[in-house]
Protein: Interleukin-1 receptor-associated kinase-like 2
Amino acid sequence: MPDFRCCHPNVLPVLGFCAARQFHSFIYPYMANGSLQDRLQGQGSSDPLPWPQRVSICSGLLCAVEYLHGLEIIHSNVKR
Structure:
């Protein structure tokens, strides 16, 4: 894996990569507040996010994808 570091506030850094025969995975920093999916659905102890905050998150995601495309980085999926 080439040594590449991207610096954008909406992109998590990749700490490592594992490429086994039938299983590939990236290693990211631990996110203590849970997943975005949990927050959107109001699972756990959090209430569902209000619409203005959801729109802000979508805007940040689009900025991050635009940044990655500008660096010609190919991404395979964007999780919800």
